[in-house]
Amino acid sequence: MKNIIMKINFEKILFLVIICLTSALWSQKRTEPFTISLPTHKLEKSYYKTIKLIDKREDTTSLGIVQQGMLNAKAKVIPTSSISSQFQSILNSINGDDTEEGTMVLYLKQLYFAEVTAKLSEHGYCYFQGFLFSKNNDGTYSLIDQTDTVIDIKATDVTAKTLEKGSEMLVDFISKNASKKPETNNHYTMEQVMTFDDTAKQSISFYNSPQLKDGVYKNYNALKNQQPDQKITNVKFYGNAPKIVRIYEMADGKEKEIKKGDIYAIVYKGEPYIYLSIENLFTKAIKRDNDYYFIGKIRSNPNAGSMMLTGAAFFGAIGVLIMSNPAYPFEMKIDYFNGGFIPIKEIQNKNY
Fold first, then answer.
1. What is the secondary structure of 68-126 as a DSSP string?
2. 311, 346, 305: which is closest to 150 by C-alpha?
3. Residues with Cβ < 8 Å from 164, sequence gap 6 or more?
4. Taking the CB of residue 235, how many other CB atoms lie within 10 A of it?
């Protein structure tokens, strides 16, 4: 069957996050071991002898959730040795005779596996997000490459195939960059690399503008760069809640409602509101600790033996559901890197 490796889109980011989050609600006594399969080929030239890991994953105790057996019992993916040592093993394996003494630093944001069982098929996913740096002679660091990639596997034994292809993805990423020197002139201190999320946000207008620009933003890039696609003149709130159900523009001298379906977010009176397809409205995002948080609903059934996700992504606006009822409110934050929604915690409040 065909294996597809593609750039991660917003829809699949939330797929994987929600799978891991909701699966974690169930018993996690089962485990699935993961070891990166080392390549046999050697590089003709490598500039790096050492790779260091800065692990910034939300959950560093496992690498996600897979399914085992006929009943699809949930099992945590547990590395057989530390992820840091396994990345070093990749480098040791691919380095040949012509290897310099350089150092790589991998700032790891996401690395996890997940599986989805539908009526007639099983899909396995591996999501890998991070930044790779090279240490310069003056002790600073330069960015070599960044990745925001998902592998989508459909197979009979989807667990084994997903782990295999995930391993190959990690090896390929290190291999292709070990023979490269950074092309950028940006030089970062180790402190900036250690806190690279904050460092990266410094160049993003959405996180640094003293006043956000009012208007309609059809995708995250527009919001990120503070380049609204359309003006708005008025809105209608959902009662006293910080939620907007209708937005308007002026057309031919009259106020006209704007369709919501192809919008990622709006800014109204300097405040951002994120579109949630499951609720068909915009909910207010609050900036806290240099991140934007909001409350939105996720549908989940912790008693289900299998799960099927359906998603709707309209030019970057994300709405992903797990096929069941009821809908549970979660606090989420915006992933500054790609605009995806990262669930943080379930909200125990009936008002939502």
1. ETTTTEEEEEEESS-HHHHHHHHHHHH--SSEEEEEEEEEEEEEEEEEEE-SS-EEEEE
2. 311
3. 37
4. 16
Judge whether residue 128 has pLDDT over 60: yes
- Residues near 337 by beta carbon (within 8 Å), at least 6 away in sequence: 109, 129, 148, 200
At CB < 8 A and 24+ separation, what contacts does 288-294 make?
290/198, 290/201, 290/207, 291/333, 291/334, 291/336, 292/206, 292/333, 292/334, 293/331, 293/332, 293/333, 293/344, 294/331, 294/332, 294/333, 294/334
Pairing of strands 286-288, 291-299: antiparallel
The pLDDT confidence band at residue 64, using thresholds 50, 70 and 90, is confident
The pLDDT of residue 309 is 25
**Per-residue tokens: 160:** 């084994």
CA terminus-to-terminus distance, the chain: 43
- pTM here? 0.80
pLDDT-derived band at 67, boundaries 50, 70, 90 = confident
Q: 4-201 adopts what CATH topology?
A: Rossmann fold (3.40.50)
User: From CA 169, how far away is CA 223, in angstroms rounded?
Assistant: 31
Q: What percent of the chain has pLDDT over 70?
A: 80
Residue ranges per structural domain of the chain: 4-201, 205-346
Tens digit of each residue's pLDDT (9 = 90 or more) over 260-279: 988 999 999 999 999 998 88
User: What span, in angstroms and rounded, lies between the C-alpha atoms of 7 and 4?
Assistant: 10
DSSP reduced 3-state for 274: strand
Is the pLDDT assigned to residue 6 strictly greater than 50? no
**Which residues are 282's β-sheet partners?**
244, 275
- Bridge partners of 33, per DSSP, are 78
How is residue 188 annotated by DSSP? B
Say what the alpha-carbon torsion angle 37, 40, 43, 48 is, to the nearest 10 degrees.
40
Q: How far apart are the C-alpha atoms of 127 and 169, rounded to whole Å? A: 10
Q: What is the pLDDT of residues 220-236, one digit of tens each?
A: 999 999 999 999 999 99
322 pairs with which residues across the strands? 309
